[in-house]
Write a structure and sequence with these properties.
Layout (H helix, E strand, L loop, with lengths): L7 E5 L4 H12 L3 E6 L2 H13 L3 E6 L5 H15 L4 E4 L21 H29 L2 E6 L12 H25 L3 E8 L8 H4 L8 H9 L12 H8 L10 E4 L10
Helix pairs in contact: 1-8, 3-4, 4-5
């Protein structure tokens, strides 16, 4: 039931650390993978890596905030593979101006950067869902998987813009799941995964020092994570494959924590 052979998957942000790992995992499970990113060199590099491993992948250069570019990418996929079965909305991120640093408070927030972060994470999920979801409606089946965060579920200091955007992604996931089921039946499903704390380039300096030791923030996270470690990108793959496959055919509108127990722990 976890075999994705013959299915076509789109991964936005598919050349990044987490998105790229998910692209590789879906390809290994048998899916044909369309990798969408703004930077041609990084997308083509990821496509080569997947091809060398025996998978099938296609590079798509597009900005998740540009509807015309997304439509062109969708048409490219449909011309090559004829269908779209899976969409993973992995594109996202944060900006310094939308983050409250230790020597700042909320009144130092850059509204411009707050808006950019909200656009990237929320609008950058909504637009691809509208564009690629249309193809799923035409084929009457599909699975859309959004990327949430622990920051969406409870207050995490400093990351105010990112937290607000991901909380909106959670709500949109549930809303879209209901919309798809009511309007198009239960074979188009919408879910999300909420990663715990994974080290990537965007947050490395927040969590680790140059010598590899933990910062004070990193130490707090490990203390509050029952498994006492950060996640590994490959530990997200099985959940995405499950939500992509017919094994989760009666699952829609949920946000699955992949967090080492962080969301379950009261701190006591």
């Amino acid at each position: 039931m976890f075999d994705l052979t013959g299915k076509v998957a789109i991964i936005t942000g598919g050349a990044g650390v987490l998105g790229g790992t998910l692209a590789e995992g879906l390809a290994k499970a048998g899916a044909k993978v369309g990798i969408l990113n703004r930077t041609k060199a990084t997308v083509e590099k990821k496509v080569r890596e997947i091809t060398v491993q025996g998978g099938e992948a296609l590079a798509m250069i597009a900005d998740v905030l540009d509807e015309t570019q997304l439509i062109n990418a969708r048409d490219k996929i449909l011309d090559k593979w004829g269908r779209i079965d899976i969409l993973v909305n992995s594109a996202g991120g944060n900006m310094r101006g939308a983050t409250i640093m230790p020597d700042q408070d909320i009144f130092d927030l850059s509204i411009e950067d707050f808006s950019k972060v909200t656009d990237l994470n929320l609008k950058g999920t909504v637009l691809p869902t509208m564009v690629f979801g249309r193809a799923m409606v035409d084929f009457k089946k599909g699975s859309i998987i959004n990327i949430s965060s622990m920051a969406a579920q409870q207050a995490i200091t400093r990351v105010v813009g990112y937290s607000a955007a991901k909380a909106a992604v959670d709500n949109f996931t549930k809303w879209m799941a209901v919309e798809m089921a009511h309007k198009y039946g239960g074979d188009i499903r919408v879910n999300a995964i909420a990663p715990g704390f994974f080290i990537a380039e965007q947050n490395r300096r927040l969590l680790t020092n140059e010598d590899g030791s933990l910062t004070a923030r990193g130490e707090t996270i490990i203390k509050e994570t029952p498994m006492k470690r950060f996640g590994k990108p490959e530990e997200l793959i099985s959940t995405v494959i499950w939500l992509s496959s017919d094994a989760s055919s009666f699952v829609s509108g949920i946000i699955v924590p992949v967090d080492g127990g962080f969301s379950a722990f009261s701190g006591v």
